[in-house]
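Thread: quick sanity check before group meeting

JM: Hey all, I'm pulling together slides for Thursday and realized we never actually wrote out the predicted structure for the chain we discussed last week. Dropping the sequence here so it's in one place. If anyone has concerns about the input, flag it before I start.
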Amino acid sequence: MRIGFKSDQKNWKKEYSGLKPNTIRHFSYMKKKDIREEILNDFVYERLNILDIEIENTSTKERFVRRVKDVTFWNNDYIISW
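JM (edit): ok, ran it. Output follows.
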């Protein structure tokens, strides 16, 4: 399974290089349900064992993919680490 997100150029460079091997994501409960939140919950509760994350640079549209090692749900945010 693969899940995708976008990052601004500054964060994307750190994420791509491995300097910042994680991203924090928040899903608003006021908006329509996002399938990505369900996928992250499946990983958190071990209903999904293998998950890849694709991060897109919002400026250049470059992308990279990493295997997710951990997803932590904390203060209504998901901390996704690779």
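AS: nice. The chain has one domain: 2-81. The first helix runs from residue 9 to 17.
JM: adding both to the slides.
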